[in-house]
Structure formats: structure tokens, C-alpha cells
Design a protein that fits this description.
Distance between the termini: 22 Å
Number of domains: 1
Order of helices and strands: HHHHHHHH
Number of helices: 8
Radius of gyration: 19 Å
Number of strands: 0
């Protein structure tokens, strides 16, 4: 039950990343929030084209995404399976920061940069649990690898292959679910972007992330207790 709650949490973060990315892309193109591969590609192009302002802006965006991941590693230094409540507390604070930037610096370069930092923080924490919430290229690669393994196992004449197929099939399904959830977040963000002013849109996005952060704080203790019991059982 506890692990299922954490999976739900990861999907909520993925949904929020899809929403955040489309907001930045639609309001501040060619910038985006979550996909640094695109930023790195544009860094090379803008340098060759002589667009120094865009080059520096993209460079800063990548650096701030990295900074967000650094903060995630600082907050959770023990890494995998350490469900620290500090992440949730910082998540609430950074969600409030998103709202503050949208209110006081709407349409500014600083809001774009903060979104990169915010995405880096979220992705940096979940990556420690081997979960991707922003880099869908990695999800597609992971899903493809697991599908290939699934097909290979299915082709074998092995009486025990059902167990392996079940595990690979579940993992593949979860990866595809992540892709769908990210797209769903992007769809919601697109609809809201057309339907309301940018400030209201970012306010909803910040409130959504704050709610997800509170949800994590509520389940983090149960997750820690679950892992403690699990470790004791293994010993």
C-alpha cells in the first residue's frame, strides 16, 4: 500500500512537470522547463548564429536545472529509498516561490530560470528512486529496452518465464503510464494557457504542486516506517 502511494506521488509530479513545461514553452519559447536536451542543442545553434543573449540564457537555464538537482541531492544525501520529509517541506517552499515569481515578475526572464531550477529539483529527487518525471526521452528508452527484454523472454522455452514476463510487463506498463501522464499534464497546461491569464494559470500550477508536496509529507513517514520494517525483516 505504501509503495502504491509513492507511485501515485511520482505520477502527480510527472503530471505537474508536463504542465510546467508546456507553460514555459508556450509563453517563453524557445525556452522550456524540463527538457535540457533541447536547451543544449539550442546552445550550440545560438552560438554558431551569434545570438549571444539566447546562448547565455540557455546556458543559465541548464545551470539552474543542475542547481535544482544539487539541492535535491543536498536535501536527500542518503539517496535511494530515503523518504525524507525535508524534500516535501522544500517542495512546498519552492511551489510558493513559483507563485511569487509569477506574481511579482510575470513574463520575466527570472520566471523562466526559476522554472528550470524547480524542474531540476523535482527530477533530481525522484531520479534517486530511479524514477524519471521530466525527461521523457529516457522513459521512452527505458520502455523500449524493457519491451525488447519482454519479447526475448517470451520467445524462450522456459517454464519459469511467466514470473519474468510479469515483472517486465508491469515495469513496461508503468513507463508507458508515465508518458501518458506527462502528456496529460501538457494537455491541461495547454487548455489553461488558452483559457485564462498567465498569472491565474501559474497560480493553479503552484497550488497543484503545493498540494502534491503536502501529500508527499503525509506519506513520507509511512514510507519510512515501511522501509524500516522491510529492512528488519531482511536481517
Amino acid at each position: 500500500m505504501e509503495l502504491n502511494l509513492f507511485v501515485i506521488f511520482s505520477y502527480l509530479v510527472t503530471f505537474g512537470c508536463g504542465w510546467l513545461n508546456v507553460e514555459v514553452l508556450m509563453n517563453f519559447a524557445p525556452y522550456c522547463a524540463t527538457h535540457q536536451t533541447g536547451h543544449l542543442t539550442r546552445i550550440a545553434v545560438s552560438l554558431i548564429q551569434g545570438d549571444i543573449f539566447l546562448f547565455l540564457g540557455l546556458l543559465i537555464a541548464v545551470g539552474l536545472f543542475l542547481a535544482g538537482s544539487v539541492v535535491a541531492g543536498f536535501v536527500n544525501p542518503k539517496g535511494d529509498m530515503n523518504f525524507t520529509a525535508r524534500f516535501g517541506v522544500m517542495y512546498v517552499i519552492f511551489s510558493a516561490g513559483l507563485m511569487a515569481f509569477a506574481v511579482f515578475l510575470p513574463g520575466s526572464f527570472f520566471l523562466i530560470m526559476y522554472c528550470s531550477f524547480f524542474s531540476g529539483y523535482l527530477n533530481g529527487f525522484l531520479t534517486q528512486f530511479k524514477i524519471r518525471v521530466s525527461h521523457m526521452s529516457g522513459i521512452v528508452s527505458d520502455a523500449g529496452i524493457e519491451l525488447g527484454r519482454l519479447l526475448k523472454v517470451a520467445s524462450r522455452k522456459d517454464r519459469n518465464k511467466r514470473t519474468s514476463m510479469r515483472a517486465l510487463g508491469l515495469s513496461f506498463s508503468m513507463k508507458m503510464m508515465s508518458l501518458g501522464v506527462f502528456v496529460a499534464g501538457a494537455l491541461v497546461g495547454t487548455v489553461f494557457n488558452f483559457a485564462m491569464p498567465m498569472l491565474a494559470d501559474f497560480a493553479l500550477l503552484a497550488a497543484f504542486n503545493a498540494a502534491v508536496a503536502v501529500f508527499y509529507i503525509k506519506i513520507s513517514r509511512a514510507m519510512r516506517e515501511y522501509m524500516g520494517k522491510r529492512n528488519e525483516a531482511v536481517r
